[in-house]
Each structure stands twice: as structure tokens, then as C-alpha cells.
Amino acid sequence: xxxxxxxxxxxxxxxxxxxxxxxxxxxxxxxxxxxxxxxxxxxxxxxxxxxxxxxxxxxxxxxxxxxxxxxxxxxxxxxxxxxxxxxxxxxxxxxxxxxxxxxxxxxxxxxxxxxxxxxxxxxxxxxxxxxxxxxxxxxxxxxxxxxxxxxxxxxxxxxxxxxxxxxxxxxxxxxxxxxxxxxxxxxxxxxxxxxxxxxxxxxxxxxxxxxxxxxxxxxxxxxxxxxxxxxxxxxxxxxxxxxxxxxxxxxxxxxxxxxxxxxxxxxxxxxxxxxxxxxxxxxxxxxxxxxxxxxxxxxxxxxxxxxxxxxxxxxxxxxxxxxxxxxxxxxxxxxxxxxxxxxxxxxxxxxxxxxxxxxxxxxxxxxxxxxxxxxxxxxxxxxxxxxxxxxxxxxxxxxxxxxxxxxxxxxxxxxxxxxxxxxxxxxxxxxxxxxxxxxxxxxxxxxxxxxxxxxxxxxxxxxxxxxx
Length: 468
Prior knowledge:
Blueprint: H1 2-17, H2 38-52, H3 55-66, H4 74-89, E1 94-106, E2 110-116, E3 122-124, E4 127-128, E5 140-147, H5 150-155, H6 158-161, E6 165-168, H7 179-187, H8 194-198, E7 204-208, E8 235-238, H9 240-250, E9 255-261, E10 264-278, E11 286-292, H10 302-321, E12 329-335, H11 343-355, E13 359-364, E14 372-378, H12 381-388, H13 391-394, E15 421-426, H14 431-434, H15 447-467
Parallel strand pairs: 5-6, 6-7, 7-8, 11-12, 11-13, 13-15
Antiparallel strand pairs: 1-10, 2-3, 2-9, 4-8, 5-9, 10-12, 14-15
Helix pairs in contact: 2-15, 3-10, 10-15
């Protein structure tokens, strides 16, 4: 009884006191939630990559070890195994393949010779367009006709070009400072469309390589034949110096060309996109990083797009090394068949649509690993304004250009699903010196520039993950 008697007042007292408003302790400081310091986080990212970054060594392995990674070749299969191993080595838990259709195209032997009047045959360096028809290993001979403008083409009758070999000497415009813009303007000209030229009755197409270099190195280009083409003519490119010399020669006398190409298509196979991701702690919405894994068949594919591949892997490595807890899923996709078909990107886009996956953002890198300058933003005005507000965080790292609005081809199909797109913008003044040529090799890449691009990409992924 005594024990019970004592406990009742204690209970009542606690009940009565609980009705009173507790007084604040004047000596206790209020709790303040620490604000996320982006300047500090940006520096952590930069310090990690510039000190411990593995992208340059990885690029050496990919270009000089694996080598050419053309679609539907053993080289691409080797690149797939290399990429999967690299993702596994940095601790990525989710890695898988997504098969996409890829054309089997074999370049084979190829040659171009020209002869002026009664002179001797002279060999000219050349490259077949990707997926071009060949000559069946037989000599295709014809008189060369020079065309430099669309007005010249339109003024010619079918009879003037029938059975001729059309030579288009159309250089990239040096007055356009952004070399990517200059390239795209020239590449879209109907003058370098084999389908357009074939409709004139011509039997082959030779073009001046799309390059900013003043040398004699030919650069490849992808060919697209139209479904209604009755005749598919062979198409090839020659170096800038050969193009200029040939034009001078044609203005003086008749010139004949002899083309021999064993290039042929052998149906389709499949090549996989390689996908690796760090799943989100908050939700399964996806932030995408993208580059192309394939290259042309004649070179190392360093700037196009080995640099992009190793930068994407470096972003994931850095986030893991810093112990970053990401809100959304951060996914890398290394696309198959980007150079001669684009089936890898189409397959991924179809997958996203079918699965109804929510993508917050997609960032591509395919411009050569040169010094980063900014990000091209292909997204709504509202999203662009949000990114503009982050400029001051990026400025100490040389990132200032947020005004461009194009994104790389491999993520462009995602635009149809209203996914905000972006591309790493770099200084491209040297890019088209080597693009799609045998000169696209590891030694053209600067280690510091490559790592700085990975820094900017990782910083952007951080901002998107924290704010979108």
C-alpha cells in the first residue's frame, strides 16, 4: 500500500506538469541543418579525378589494346568484354547487355586511280563510305565531272552526268568558328548524297573529306541509300590536298577515274549496348550518361569516341570512390553501332518507352576529350534556367558555355519522350583534323584535358541528382 501511495502522486504530478508549456533553455543553441556546400563538393570531385583518375590509362587500353571496334567484328566483341570488366572492377553492381541489330559490312580492298589526258594512272588515297556498295572487285572507269555548288548540280541535265563519276569538292566553311556547326552544314548538303547523285545518271561519287586539316588523309562518312533507289552507286572520299589538286587539273583538261572496291554488305547480326548503373537510394528515376563504344574499322577510335567511353566510366568510379549516396539511379550506356547505322540508340529508346522508365536527364559525350567549355542544353526553357543558376559553381573549372542547344545523336531519340538532354561542350578546333580517319589515335588525346571533361560531367551529374 505504501508503495502504491507513493507512485500515484508521482504519476499525477507528471500529468499536471505536462500540461504546462516547457520553457526554452536560454543557453541551448537552436538546431540548424547544414546547407549542402556545392563549392566544396565540386572541389572534392575535381581533386579525386585530377589526382586518381583512371580515364587516360583506360583509354590507352581501349585504343591500343582493343583497337578498332567496328560493328559486327571481333574487335567490337573484344571491346564489349573490356567495358564490362572495367565497370565490374570499379564496383558497379548492375551490368548488362542490350542486343541491337547491326549491319555486317566489309570494306575489303579499295583503290582509286586518276589519269589526265594521255598521262599515266596515278594512285590517290581514298576511303569508301561506310556501308557503300562496291564495284564487285572490278574496275569502274569513267570521266570525272566537278561540282562545287548545288546550283551547278541543278543546272546540269541528266545527259551531262550520265555514266560520269561525280566529284564534289565542298570544303567545310572556315568562317564558321564552331567546327561542329561547319561539319553538320556540309554533311547535310545533298551534293554528298549518293542517292541524289545516282538519280542524275552518274555511276559513282567522290567527295572531298569533311575535315579542317590541310593534309591528304581521307576521312570516312556514313552512306544512306534511299529505299526507292533503283541504282546504288559506290561512294568514296579523298583527302583535302588531293581534292584541291584534282579540281585544278579538271579545270585544265579531261580526267578519268578508275575505282575498284570489294566492299559488300552481308546482312545483319546483333551487337550489344553495354549498360552499368548505381541504383538510386531515393527512387529508380534514371540519370543517363552516354557514349558510343564502336569505332570505324581502320583506326583506334580515340577521340571518336574512346574518350567519351572512359569519361562515362570515370564518373561512376569517382562517385563510388567518394562514397556518394545518389538519390536517383545513375546509369551509363555505351552504345553499339553508332557509326554505321545507329541501331544501338534506337534499341535503347524503344526499351525506355516500353518499360515506361522515368529519365530525369541524359548527358552525352562524343566530341574528342578536348578542354571542356560547357554544356549544350536541349531541354525546356524552365530547365535551362535552372542550369544557368549553377554557372558560378562551374566557372572555376573553365566551364562557362551553356548557350548551345544540340545533343549527341545517340541520346537524341529520347527527346521524343520529353527527357532533358545535354552534351559536354569542348574546344573542337582540332577534332575534325582527325575525325573518322586513321589519324584518330591515342596520342592525339591530352590527359589533363580528358580528366577535366570527366570532372565537369561528374559535377553536372551531382547537381542534377541533388536538384531534379
